[in-house]
Amino acid sequence: MADEADLIELDRRIATVRDNIRILVEQATAYSGAADEARTADRISDQESLLAELVKQRDALAKG
Fold first, then answer.
1. Number of domains the chain is built from
2. Are 31 and 37 in contact (CB under 8 A)?
């Protein structure tokens, strides 16, 4: 059951990161100015990297 609990936790974290990316994209459309856009792009990139790592972990755990 520990593996199932781990999968549930990873799914929760993945959902959170996806929501963060959605929010950041919405914020990016509202910002103006190169500094704000660059900062938001960096934050989106960081969240996308985290999402990829979490999905990779979940897939490895699911394969058992």
1. 1
2. yes
Given a contact cutoff of 8 angstroms between Cβ atoms, the answer to whether 54 and 14 are in contact is: yes
Question: Residues 16-40: pLDDT tens digits?
Answer: 999 999 999 988 888 767 777 888 8
pLDDT at 52 over 90: yes
**Rounded distance between C-alpha atoms, residue 35 and residue 63, angstroms:** 42
Residue-number span of the structural domain to which 9 is assigned: 2-63
How many whole angstroms separate alpha carbon 36 and alpha carbon 63? 41
For the entire predicted model, the pTM comes to: 0.81
- Residue 32, by phi and psi: left (phi above 0), alpha (psi -120 to 50) or beta? beta
